[in-house]
Amino acid sequence: MSGSGGTRSEGGGKTGRERPVRDRARAVLLAGVAAVAGGLLGAREATADAGSGAADPATVVLLHGLGRTPRNMVILEWRLEARGYRVCNVGYDWRKPRLEEVIAEVHDAVSACRREGEPLHVVTHSLGALVLRGLLAVHAVPDLGRAVMLAPPNQGSEIADRLRDIGILESVMGPISTQLGTREIDLPARLPPPPIPFGVIAGNEWINPAGPLWLPSPHDGTVSVASTRLEGMRDHIVLPYTHTFIMNAGPVAAQIDTFLRQGRFERPAPR
User: Fold this and answer.
1) Which residue has the higher pLDDT, 117 or 211?
2) Does residue 19 belong to any structural domain of this protein?
3) Rounded to two decimals, what is the model's pTM?
4) Which CATH number fits the domain that encloses residue 71?
5) 31 vs 35, 36, 47, 205, 250, CA distance in Å?
């Protein structure tokens, strides 16, 4: 029976009003456990990468994405170091109001990473690709080698369009996020491709529930595979990872290593 105090669950436990709160808390907890487990597994796998060894000394600059920090690129940093690279895991303040301010910050950091006469490669995640494109549009960086972009919004993100239109994007992700859409006035359409050999790795798995609602398939939950493409790219490959965790995967690090050495990604030999 129901009384004026509300309906109780059949098990005599929480009210219907409390159940969604409990379910949301459980979902957050499970997501946190999954992230920690993924990080521990990635760290163990990174150790297994040791011994590959880069053929020649080279530095790799890592540029993280929107809402991230260098901590989000640490597993990839370990994997590349195990393959013989010297790695500079560069941080920048994505909350700055203008991309030009981010570019100035990153330029100083990249300049500090350089070693005279040693190849300098760049690996980016998400917004990091646009930072790289903006950086190389205004600065000549000596000794640049190759670049690999992970899940880049090279043609903009439809999710950025939708969140901007409903007015919550800037308050959550900062001013630059409002310029990541698909309009001609947005950053992806205005920035030139990088003037160095570059390849793109896209993901086609998703955990973001907004992905299938707002993105054309295939997509990684934040960026569609089609949007990752960019004129002038030397190679493009799609791997089964999400936007959030693509940088942690061992096969992704292996593909990065292959491209930095050979200028192309590895593909299975035809049968």
Assistant:
1) 117
2) no
3) 0.80
4) 3.40.50.1820
5) 6, 9, 25, 16, 21
